[in-house]
Amino acid sequence: MEKNWYVIHTYSGYENKVKANLEKRVESMNMGDKIFRIMVPMEEELEVKDGKKKLVKKKVFPGYVMVEMIMTDDSWYVVRNTPGVTGFVGSGTRPIPLLEHEVHMILGSDLSGVPELPKVNLTVGQEITVIEGPFEGFSGRIEEVFADRGKVRVTVSMFGRETPLEVDFAQVAEME
Questions:
Q1: What is the tens place of the pLDDT at every residue in 110-142?
Q2: How far apart are CA 75 and CA 26, in angstroms?
Q3: CA distance 94 to 125
Q4: DSSP 8-state assignment for residue 49
Q5: Are the C-beta atoms of 8 and 19 separated by less than 8 Å?
């Protein structure tokens, strides 16, 4: 038997509680040799409120928890009967394991060790204000988002002309 990642469906908002309950059940029922890791996929997002920047963790898939396990009747029973679990994701009677590339895509840095840039709710055409740096106080429109570099290209009006600037995500805030 080989270990694979499976996705379980939970009541929305109970993901962390299911993770904790399942970890306790694995320990109390001596299933540590069949159920290995339990994860609630999270991502960091840069949130700006009242001009203050803050990294917040958000669930990537609300209502779902990932479990690395060897699928046996016993391990299936332990997971399936954990309070808050509504079932495994998959068609038919047997859960379908995730493919290796799906696991890496979903968990990203959790498995690969490569940190990901935080996700930001900035879009092309959005009106923003520069809140930090030499252009602080200027307002403009986002022309391009460079998510891989954590920067945006903004067009601001300077000396009566439209001028493009490239600034970090953290240097801008949505206009209110």
A1: 444 444 555 567 889 999 988 888 888 889 999
A2: 9
A3: 47
A4: E
A5: no
User: Residue 57 in contact with residue 41, Cβ under 8 Å?
Assistant: no
| Tokens linked to 70 | 């060897």
Q: What is the pTM of this model?
A: 0.62
State which H helix or E strand residue 21 sits in.
Answer: helix 15-28
- Counted residue by residue, the chain has a size of 176
Predicted local distance difference test score (pLDDT) of residue 49? 75
Q: How far apart are CA 154 and CA 100, in angstroms?
A: 39
Structure tokens at 133: 């740096």
Handedness of CA 48, 53, 55, 56 (dihedral sign): negative
Nearest to 5 by CA among 93, 73, 79: 79
**What are the CA-CA distances from residue 11 to residues 75, 106, 126, 133 (Å)?**
20, 20, 35, 44
Across 16-138, the runs of DSSP E, i.e. the strands, are 35-39, 42-49, 52-59, 64-70, 85-88, 119-120, 127-130
| Pairing status of strand 139-146 against strand 151-158 | antiparallel
Nearest by Cα to 120 from 167, 78, 176: 167
Residue pLDDT, tens place only, 22-53: 999 999 999 999 999 999 988 877 777 777 77
- Provide the token pair at 45: 């997002």
